[in-house]
Amino acid sequence: MYQTTYHRxxxxxxxxxxxxNDEAKYLSGGQTLIPTMKQRLASxxxxxxxxxxxxxxxxxxxxxxxxxxAGMTHADVASSAQVREMIPALADLAGGIGDPHVRNxxxxxxxxxxxxxxxxxxxxxxxxxxxxxxxxxxxxxDSFFNGLFETVLEEGEIITxxxxxxxxxxxxxxxxxxxxxxxxxxxxxARTDGNCRVAVTxxxxxxxxxxxxxxxxxxxxxxxxxxxxxxxxxxxxxxxxHGTGEYRAHLVNVLAKRAVTAA
Length: 263
Description:
Order of helices and strands: EHEHEEEHHHHHHEEHEEEEEHHH
Helix content: 25-40%
Mean pLDDT: 94
CATH class of the largest domain: Alpha Beta
Largest sheet: 5 strands, antiparallel
CATH architecture of the largest domain: 2-Layer Sandwich
Number of strands: 12
Distance between the termini: 45 Å
Number of helices: 12
Number of domains: 2
CATH topology of the largest domain: Uridine Diphospho-n-acetylenolpyruvylglucosamine Reductase, domain 3
Strand order of the largest sheet: 4-5-8-6-7
């Protein structure tokens, strides 16, 4: 790796000050940044480690929502009795991310901020219509994601927590790579206060997206039949060694039906 200066701030305010340098990068779980640096594809002058900040920890019920600190690891979310009671689909999703090493190092906030097109959490954030809280503002799920590896986060802006409305029904289905456990296609279906949302990860050329064609039908009748033959345009799908656009579009439809049935 290139030479870099490592900082471990004690408070969120200290982290924000250290991160104000344009050449600094925030380090959360490091599951993407560290391998990228090892391959010499990134060379930040300094790293600001957020993993020890108490302001980014904790899981608590907040009215009809579940608030999860951005620094909570995937293992924390997967093993939380509160998450499993209130949003079991979210706990199951977290438990299916990567391997034990990844789950014990990677964080909710890091995953959402990175917005990898095959990551699992973005589908949950979008399908549950979550609210992302930062050190500067609150952002709705529909406004947050902005294409592959892109979000509306500004320089120096840190996700502090994410608030997930508790659904009456929810399930996440993933067809993953056996090597990485990244989603070749993942579909999260949720019904909250009578509104239905279906979000897809791993498949879209522009990253995570909502399957709006099926949402209206599901709001009227929550069943696999309501999903029908709705599927995205194959031309809008990722094409790689794992599958064609047609293959991924087909998987989206199949997994959406499974998610609705399982929920």
